[in-house]
Design brief:
Protein name: tRNA (guanine(37)-N1)-methyltransferase
Helix content: 25-40%
Subcellular location: Mitochondrion matrix; Nucleus; Cytoplasm
CATH class of the largest domain: Alpha Beta
Family: Belongs to the TRM5 / TYW2 family. Belongs to the class I-like SAM-binding methyltransferase superfamily. TRM5/TYW2 family.
Strand content: 25-35%
Largest sheet: 7 strands, mixed
CATH architecture of the largest domain: 3-Layer(aba) Sandwich
Number of helices: 10
Distance between the termini: 64 Å
Number of domains: 2
Pfam families: TRM5-TYW2_MTfase, TYW2_N_2
CATH topology of the largest domain: Rossmann fold
Number of strands: 18
Strand order of the largest sheet: 14-13-12-15-16-18-17
Radius of gyration: 26 Å
Bound molecules: S-adenosylmethionine
Shape: globular
Structural class: alpha/beta
EC number: 2.1.1.228
Length: about 375
């Protein structure tokens, strides 16, 4: 009997794995891998009453065990065990997201006293796919859009590999942005909107899920991010997917990036621009005012499609977002196609607005200061 001794936090529970276990108590004889929880007596009774089949008495403390046999992601099993372990009245955490080998919980305040217990159960019931369990400790607020994470169980590594649409992405969840829930939206752009002849400019590329996926299909991609670590991973991911020849990488503020792309004699005229920074992207649109004012006549012919993302809590989110776009561009844009990406919170939509940059905007007097 041995392997792992885990401090499960305020519940005061200790757990360890056993290779074989033969009970003499109510559960009868059993052998196989298990996790045994030593639970303080008051809590053990509570647990026992709700999970009356599996317990044994040892000295003055109670031991509760469950079988940790599952190899697959086994959320249902986690829920059953947590129902038995958590005090009555507490809502059982029923979901977690996975990013590679990392399970990412979003625990409510009421769960925090039991966070290590919850994480350990999720880990035990979802091995070997899950190796690390983390909780998001704060809303995403920083410029690099990274999550503040607390490692609760497992090996603690936040570096992982994600496979999306057959492509491989290395990600360090502690240092870069990643959201698997946007996979469908990325595929919508690549499959339904981009054409083989397109040249794509990804202004907020992160580690490259859209840029790399697009590069598989389109003629060329310019990808930029302000976060040097995201750019480092982007470059690795380009090599990993053998697409480095089709992507040029930049590490600068998105305004400077757009200004330098349009002021240089870049070989490929841009046809599609993606702005995935939903909190603020609309306010970057003024960078396109006058962008083609001084360029050669050839470039003037190519008015790119812009796909800009935003959030809205308004009753009419499309109208609300359109207004923001008009204000930032300095004129009203006709024919904006709106796509609801997903509900990110009750009443809060993430929206993608797609429109062709009006020539009047592209050759107008700029009203921003480029750095
Ligand atoms: C919401 S994430 C999207 C990343 C990527 N498109 C994806 O789907 O994974 C936004 C990205 O914009 C980057 N970013 C934030 N402010 C920026 C700026 N002013 N210029 C360029 N990149 C910026 C962040 O570092 C982050 O990687």
């Amino acid at each position: 009997m041995e392997t792992r001794l885990t401090d499960l936090g305020q519940l005061g529970v200790l757990s360890f794995s056993v290779g074989a276990w033969h009970t003499r108590g109510a559960a009868g004889s059993w052998s196989g891998p298990a996790v045994v929880y030593f639970v303080p007596e008051e809590q053990a009774w509570h647990v026992f009453l709700r999970m009356a089949t599996t317990f044994v008495c040892a000295g003055s403390s109670m031991m509760l065990y469950y079988i940790a046999e599952s190899a697959a992601v086994n959320l249902e099993a986690s829920v059953i065990v947590l129902e038995a372990l958590l005090p009555e009245g507490i809502i059982i955490p029923t979901g977690f997201e996975t990013v590679g080998h990392i399970a990412h919980l979003n625990l409510r305040d009421e769960h925090l006293p039991y966070k290590k217990l919850i994480a350990q159960v999720v880990l035990d019931k979802n091995k070997p796919k899950i190796q690390t369990v983390v909780n998001k400790t704060d809303a995403i607020q920083n410029d690099y859009r990274t999550m503040q994470l607390e490692v609760l169980a497992g090996n603690g590594s936040l570096r992982t590999m994600v496979i999306e649409s057959g492509l491989h992405f290395q990600v360090d969840l502690g240092a870069v942005y990643w959201n698997s829930r946007l996979a469908t939206e990325r595929q919508r752009l690549v499959n339904d909107i981009f054409r083989d002849s397109d040249v794509v400019c990804d202004m907020f590329s992160g580690v490259g899920p859209l840029a790399i996926s697009a590069a598989k299909k389109v003629k060329y991609v310019y990808a930029n991010d302000i976060n040097p670590t995201a750019v480092e991973y982007l470059e690795r991911n380009m090599v990993l997917n053998k697409l480095e020849r089709k992507i040029e990488v930049f590490n600068m503020d998105a305004r400077r990036f757009i200004s330098s792309i349009y002021s240089s004699q870049h070989v490929h005229p841009v046809t599609q621009i993606v702005m995935n920074l939903p909190n603020d992207a609309a306010e970057f649109l003024d960078v396109f005012r006058g962008i083609l004012r001084n360029s050669q006549s050839g470039l003037r012919c190519v008015m790119p499609m812009i796909h800009v993302y935003g959030f809205s809590k308004a009753e009419d989110p499309e109208h609300d977002f359109n207004e923001r776009i008009n204000v930032a561009l300095g004129e009203n844009v006709d024919s904006v196609e709106m796509h609801r990406v997903r509900l990110v919170a009750p009443g809060k939509w993430m929206i993608c607005a797609s429109f062709t940059l009006p020539e009047s905007v592209a050759i107008s007097q700029p009203n921003h200061i480029s750095s």
